């Protein structure tokens, strides 16, 4: 079973996507001085207003552990996150069954690498794709003074 296609299908293949990097980078003001402010809910609403139509399905690929952080966006968009679809890889899923068979009966964890891969692939299927370091913040992806242009 293709988890990425299943997630996209649940949004009727009609969604925009935004990648919001936060986590440790947002806490490191020395390397990313603007990231936390530029990815706040208020800043996101402002940045997205001219890019994503009101009411659209918006897939948010993020490393922010607290999804409620994005609650202010729910008033304007139909927000979606990877964890909403965890039934696609839980112990009763087709994916889990297939992976266990392929692994000689040993369970396979849907780990951080797989989560990041699926999140990225769903993000790339969005009709519009808004990225943290190209669209939301003026900080450089690899830290201060590392932007190529």
TrEMBL record:
InterPro entries listed in its UniProt record: DUF7075
GO CC terms, sorted: Golgi apparatus
Domain DUF7075 span(s) in chain numbering: 3-132
Protein name as annotated: DUF7075 domain-containing protein
């Amino acid at each position: 079973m293709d988890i990425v296609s299943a997630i996209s299908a649940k949004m009727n293949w009609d969604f925009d996507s935004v990648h919001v990097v936060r986590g440790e980078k947002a806490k490191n003001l020395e390397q990313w001085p603007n990231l936390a402010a530029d990815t706040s809910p208020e800043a996101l609403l402002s940045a997205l207003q001219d890019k994503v139509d009101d009411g659209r399905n918006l897939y948010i690929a993020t490393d922010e552990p607290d999804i409620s952080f994005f609650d202010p966006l729910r008033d304007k968009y139909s927000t979606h996150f990877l964890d909403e679809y965890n039934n696609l890889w839980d112990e009763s899923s087709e994916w889990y069954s297939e992976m266990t068979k392929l692994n000689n009966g040993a369970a396979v964890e849907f780990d951080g690498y797989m989560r990041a891969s699926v999140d990225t692939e769903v993000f790339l299927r969005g009709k519009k794709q808004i990225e943290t370091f190209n669209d939301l913040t003026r900080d450089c992806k690899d830290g201060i003074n590392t932007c190529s242009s």
